[in-house]
Amino acid sequence: MENDFVSRFKYVRIQGQELVENTMYAAGVFSICWDLIRKDVMDEEDAGLFMEIDDWFANVLPFPPQCKNQEKVVCFFKAENAKEMLNMIYPALWLLDRYHHPFYVVYTNTLPGKIVYEDEYQVAVEVSGKLDIRPVPKSWTPEGK
User: Where does the chain have alpha helices with state H?
Assistant: First the structure.
């Protein structure tokens, strides 16, 4: 890998703002696009494009059994093997932009739980399904500054 910012991270995930009920974790790009289709937000041509992308991933990327069972798991691509996956998912990001749906590309070395599934391209991580909500501090800066 090149010696750049992105190459310093082990995992990458594309997610939105909304939380998924069972994981209390931000919805992933596939869930977001399927929601846009189910809610009739995406037009037929764009829905077809996303379904082609989804089919490609279904044929190339193993579907973790924990995801099939809707367990409290969140998936991340392994950054070192993610180049092809990110290139193939890029049109879905274009769709999210087109429908003004915010998303974030998150690079990390720290996962939010224990790895319960792993293959060449991805990991599924068991999460607690609980939110840690903290009060707003009195000040955003250290005392006296």
Answer: 29-38, 44-60, 65-68, 83-98
